[in-house]
């Protein structure tokens, strides 16, 4: 089963990557300002990946073949890696079709809390005792008189 991996880009935007069963990246999303929109992008890929008409095919300047997946509104949801041949690109498109609908979502933007910290109750904040007032030292003669 494939998986969508949600991460944060250096510019703070969210993105998802669709990985095939063997862990290979088959689709990279555009950047999203919110995680909610990232999840909508994933749902859009799930919805549109089966439709051949939603795949735009291209040849890059370096001669590699790639594709984009478009949503109903025409917006690009994700782009493939570059492929050396047309048949490899077709296999990549088929992999998106096979993995998109049932892929699990792995959100790497969520901070993981170690189990030991998550289960432990919060400790009450400790308060410092009031600072003691300095006591003036009595001269030894006065101390002797008081003790008699």
Structure description:
The chain contains four helices and seven strands. The longest helix has 15 residues. The protein has a single domain, classed as PH-domain like, CATH 2.30.29.80. β5 and β6 form a beta hairpin. The C terminus is likely disordered. 19% of the residues are buried. With 148 residues, the chain is of the alpha+beta class. Strands 4-5-6-3-2-1-7 form a seven-stranded mixed β-sheet.
Task: Quote the beta fraction.
Answer: 15-25%
**Average of the residue pLDDT scores:** 84
Radius of gyration: 31 Å
Question: Helix/strand/pairing class, anyone?
Answer: alpha+beta
CATH topology: PH-domain like
Helix coverage percent: 25-40%
Number of helices: 4
- Spatial strand sequence of the major β-sheet: 4-5-6-3-2-1-7
Low-confidence segments: 139-148
Secondary-structure element order, N to C: EEEHEEEHEHH
Oligomer: single chain
Q: Kindly give the count of domains.
A: 1
Shape: globular
Q: Distance between termini?
A: 91 Å
